[in-house]
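PROTEIN DATA CARD
Card holder: C-type cytochrome
Chain length: 127
Origin: Methylocystis heyeri
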Amino acid sequence: MILPRRRPARLVVVLAAGFCWGSPALAAGDAAHGAVIAKRWCAACHVVSADQQSANADAPPFADIAQRRPDDKQLRNFLADPHPKMPDMSLTRKEIEDIVAYIRRFDARPRPPAEPDEKDKEQPKRG
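Structure generated from the sequence above:
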């Protein structure tokens, strides 16, 4: 019995999707989805939107967080491992990226260029 040759085509599609997913353009967060998450999980304590009427006085509004934490990496790390008063919501990496993108909407200051991670820095050439 001879099988149809569809598997290589599927493999190419899967590999291409994997490479695209890892690209910086697609790795950026979705601020609209971040707003949905924030309104569902964060609004009980934080002011997460301009139309929100009340929040916990001890929890900073997202606008303040955006001003005080200009580095996206700091925000990601904090959301991945929150302080004791904040519940650990076990957010996925994608959800964290989306929330960070949403918080960034509250900061109108120009964004400094992102510093590359250690693994992304150019390594010395051998030879």
